[in-house]
Design a protein that fits this description.
Elements: E1 25-31, E2 36-42, H1 44-53, E3 57-60, E4 65-68, E5 77-84, E6 90-97, H2 126-142, H3 149-156, H4 158-177, H5 181-201, H6 206-215
Parallel strand pairs: 1-6
Antiparallel strand pairs: 1-2, 3-4, 5-6
Length: about 230
């Protein structure tokens, strides 16, 4: 049972970090939605470069060399925040992930389930789905695929996907008016997809929308003056 009043919020870490005997510290990376992306290691130089550049740098134990995440793939991680655990021997980096975090092409490195582990709930989390979709859209924009519908939208430009945004918004309205609940979810999915295309094409992400929504928490719009 949690102790009442135990949580007092974030504080600045005052002590020295506890580096391992090899000069490394564990670094866990999550995205803005809190989804676990990867786990790696940093030495002092990697941490210094991360703080200076605003993008993640790590120490590769296999290559025994520094590596700038995304340097060869273009799938950079732009740092939003860095937290230290209570023992000072691990870091948690919150990033805006460009493309896929995993070298195998998946959004997260954690895409294998241990045999015998409990099965997860079947309902997909909307944040995870949007993050995965955004990673695919970012890749389709950076590396066009002639057979991809998404790549064709990016190639044709804003008019192509804005037309779809308008069409799908109209379909959402019609589904609500007609009481078609099943089709409503389908049309909202289409609307969100094409809206994400617009965001990615303009250098934005779902994290930018999340920040806008978070900034409105607890705020009420002023009541409109009654007409005279």
């Amino acid at each position: 049972m949690p102790v009442e009043g135990a949580h007092v919020g974030l504080r600045d870490w005052q002590g020295p970090l506890k580096w391992g005997a090899d000069g490394l510290i564990a670094a866990v990376v999550v995205d803005g939605a809190g989804r676990l992306l990867m786990q790696a290691y940093m030495n002092a130089e990697a941490l210094r470069r991360t703080l200076e550049t605003g993008e993640t740098w790590f120490w590769s134990r296999s290559r025994q060399a520094l590596w700038h995440k995304g340097e060869t793939s273009g799938h950079f991680q732009r740092v939003r925040d860095i937290l230290v655990d209570c023992d000072g021997d691990a870091l948690r980096l919150c990033v805006d992930q460009v493309g896929a975090a995993c070298h195998e092409g998946d959004y997260s490195c954690f895409h294998y389930r241990l045999s015998g582990a409990p099965a997860p709930a079947e309902e997909p989390a909307i944040g995870e789905m949007l993050a995965e979709l955004e990673a695919v859209l970012t890749e389709r924009k950076a590396i066009p695929d002639p057979e991809s519908y998404t790549s064709k939208l990016f190639t044709r430009g804003a008019d192509a996907y804005l037309k779809k945004v308008g069409e799908e918004a109209t379909e959402v309205v019609l589904a609500v008016k007609n009481g078609d609940r099943e089709n409503l979810a389908f049309e909202v999915a289409d609307l969100w997809f094409h809206t994400l295309v617009a965001l990615v094409d303009n250098g934005l992400s779902s994290a930018d929308v999340a920040r806008q929504l978070a900034s409105r928490r607890g705020k009420r719009r002023p009541a409109q003056e009654a007409p005279r």
